[in-house]
Amino acid sequence: MSEPTPAWASVLPDEDYQHSFGLKAGSAEKFFAPTERHADLLAQRRHWLRNDPARCAALLPGAESLLEETIAFARQWGAPVSNRREATTLDSPVGHRRSDFADCLALGGAWEPDYLLLKQDAATGRFHLLGGCVCFPSSWRFEEKVGRPLEVIHTPVPHLNEQLASPIHNFLSRIKPGAAWCRANWGLSRSPELNQHPARGLPKLRPPLREDEVWLRVEDQALVALPESRGVLFGIRMTVIPLAEVKRHPAAACGLARALRTMPDTMLDYKSLLAAKDDLLRLLESAI
Ligand code: HEM
Description:
Oligomer: single chain
Strand order of the largest sheet: 1-5-6-7-3-4-2
Mean pLDDT: 94
Shape: globular
Number of helices: 13
Low-confidence stretches: 88-96
Bound molecules: protoporphyrin IX containing FE
Distance between the termini: 13 Å
Number of domains: 1
């Protein structure tokens, strides 16, 4: 008998693969709330923020007000982060202002999800990534994306801009305060590590593969308006699921197999799945 369907399974519907906008209204407070994995996630986040801050954190000029508003929301949603005024008295005995970058790191070490801060450029109208903390990237380099417009950030994703750049831009331009707008992406990896920065050189999915060498990565995302600073907060929450666990849910295993079968080779290549596709389908066969 199959087990009750977990929340992550909804990212693998019984549909042919396509880029989907798929935004649904949700609660920002719930998205950023602590889970039962809080201690482990925060320990990992603080490890990377301490040891590799140049790769996982940034705050460009112009992002200070976005960060300040985000910290105010984080406090409102229950995260134990001090705001600037309190930080002045609590963290510095001589009353110096804690730096904005220290605030950026502090929030990255207090929240479970990664967070990114975007703002519309006054001259071009495009949304630029101006800062945030990304400790658990899925094979992309935060440090190379910071400062770039969203369309440039999305350039490596085959056909994404031609299909979705306008809807994404229009959505971000009109995002209303209050709700979190949620969607999800998924990927497969040969490592259960949360931090899959390319610089780590983690193993790639190449045949032959055993079932216990494959993990599904589900990236839950939330977009939240920052009305005061006129920006957008983008949260990314990572969940890693062993392939054996995916196979215990036949509907999810079917959805994954169908996505792999119908995904264009350019997209399989982008997701580093092209060489492994046949092996992955073979591993899924016994579940579907
Ligand atoms: C509704 C809005 C959005 C949609 C529909 C969307 C869609 C996607 C999709 C389909 C991918 C490919 C992921 C995969 O299949 O492995 C992707 C990658 C990515 N997206 Fe978005 N995205 C959205 C908003 C954003 C925002 C606001 C950011 C913030 C900077 C962002 C940053 C990225 C990055 C960094 C990647 C990885 C690019 C790379 O591999 O170099 N996305 N996005």
